[in-house]
């Protein structure tokens, strides 16, 4: 079984990350590079959690063998020292039985594995993913322009890391007992990265440790949860209206620019790129004008610069993403509110059958179909299995009395 558990968990975790990416993402709309980076990041995060128990069990087994070997060497040394005096016998402790775990990983594999996982995670966290996020939100129309914008936006992000790194570097340089070397610089970089992560952990963990258990605790009270959902819906509705208004304003600017720059203008390609980022209903409204090919130099109307088009492109990307995000959140919150209302109505129902106010238009999946079909059988089986438990409890109570 040496190495089989590690290989099995790597395969299982990979398919788990792939399933979650398919569940929450759209393979057809996303770029392959984005899908690969997201899959790799999720895969490494889950891999750390799943492989850690294997590492612990292997370490305990190796430590047990090391302790037994050290104890055996100590006994041989004492026996050799006391060989001249036959009347002195050292007290020998029975060595512990080291049972090899089924998840044992051979020596030399885990150090290489953790180095690959750690440095790949560092590369994704500090370089690739922040750069890809800024690159996707950039309003540039060329690859070089997007790269330049992404580097400028990440200056604060990298500057914070550089500030922590320089602070630790100054501390090492001032301390006389410490000497700078390549391994020392690498240690300082790792410490700086961990310091940033621990700083965010302290800020976010305090909220999560209180809010997450409280949310699950209050989820049993459907009335209170429904009132809280109403409050969230009112708040989200304001944010949704603000996002729709912002999108309308941005689309109005796009319409104005689209009517100003005709199809024989050098910047028309930029306009076409902006129009592709707009929602479909707005693209249909911004149809081609009858005077598409009139000479743009004959008019005295001011034309927007490429810099202003880059800014408008960025505004369009942000407005569309915000609008889509609020729409999805609004739909999820509505489904939750309708479900809680149905729960409140069915609590007082005498039919003992859950009735939905708004039945789903989609056909039920095969899993839910079989679960609903087998629910009476499942109830009967549970009832029959409960009889021996009650009878054994009754016998135990009589025996105690």
UniProtKB/TrEMBL annotation:
Q: What is its main location?
A: membrane
- Signal sequence segment: none
The annotated topology with respect to the bilayer is: Multi-pass membrane protein
Where is the protein found, in the record's own terms? Membrane
One Gene Ontology BP term is: adrenergic receptor signaling pathway
Tell me yes or no: is Transmembrane among this UniProt entry's keywords: yes
An example Gene Ontology CC term for this record: membrane
Stretches that traverse the bilayer: 6-22, 34-52, 116-135, 155-174, 186-210
In terms of domain of life, where is this protein from? Answer: Eukaryota
**Which residues fall in a coiled-coil region?**
233-260
Q: What are the UniProt keywords, alphabetically?
A: Coiled coil, Membrane, Transmembrane, Transmembrane helix
Write out the similarity annotation. Answer: Belongs to the LIMR family.
- Report what the protein is called: LMBR1 domain-containing protein 2-B-like
Natural source organism: Sinocyclocheilus anshuiensis
């Amino acid at each position: 079984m040496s190495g089989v558990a590690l290989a099995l968990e790597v395969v299982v975790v990979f398919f788990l990350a792939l399933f979650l990416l398919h569940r929450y993402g759209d393979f057809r709309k996303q770029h392959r590079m984005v899908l690969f980076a997201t899959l790799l990041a999720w895969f490494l995060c889950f891999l750390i959690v799943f492989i850690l128990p294997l590492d612990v069990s292997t370490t305990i087994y190796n430590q047990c063998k090391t302790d037994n070997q050290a104890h055996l060497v100590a006994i041989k040394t004492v026996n050799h020292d006391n060989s001249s005096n036959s009347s002195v016998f050292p007290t020998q402790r029975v060595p512990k039985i080291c049972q090899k775990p089924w998840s044992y990983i051979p020596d030399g594999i885990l150090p290489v594995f953790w180095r690959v996982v750690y440095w790949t995670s560092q590369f994704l966290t500090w370089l690739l993913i922040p750069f890809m996020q800024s690159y996707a939100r950039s309003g540039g129309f060329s690859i070089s322009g997007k790269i330049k914008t992404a580097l400028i936006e990440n200056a604060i992000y990298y500057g914070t890391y550089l500030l922590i790194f320089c602070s630790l570097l100054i501390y090492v340089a001032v301390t006389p007992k410490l000497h700078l070397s390549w391994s020392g610089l690498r240690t300082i970089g790792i410490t700086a990265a961990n310091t940033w992560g621990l700083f965010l952990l302290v800020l976010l963990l305090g909220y999560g440790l209180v809010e997450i258990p409280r949310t699950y605790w209050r989820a049993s009270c459907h009335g209170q949860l429904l009132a809280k959902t109403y409050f969230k819906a009112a708040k989200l509705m304001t944010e949704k209206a603000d996002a729709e208004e912002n999108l309308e304003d941005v689309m109005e600017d796009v319409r104005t620019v689209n009517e100003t720059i005709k199809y024989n203008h050098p910047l028309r390609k930029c306009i076409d790129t902006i129009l592709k980022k707009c929602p479909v209903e707005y693209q249909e409204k911004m149809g081609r004008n009858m005077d598409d090919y009139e000479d743009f130099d004959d008019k005295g109307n001011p034309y927007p610069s490429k810099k202003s088009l880059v800014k408008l492109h960025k505004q369009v990307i942000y407005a569309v993403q915000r609008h889509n995000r609020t729409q999805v959140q609004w739909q999820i919150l509505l489904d939750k509110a309708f479900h809680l209302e149905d729960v409140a109505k069915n609590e007082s129902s005498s039919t003992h059958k859950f009735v939905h106010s708004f039945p789903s238009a989609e056909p039920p999946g095969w899993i839910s179909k079989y679960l609903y079909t087998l629910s009476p059988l499942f109830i009967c089986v549970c009832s029959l299995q409960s009889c021996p438990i009650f009878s054994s409890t009754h016998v135990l109570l009589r025996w105690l009395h």
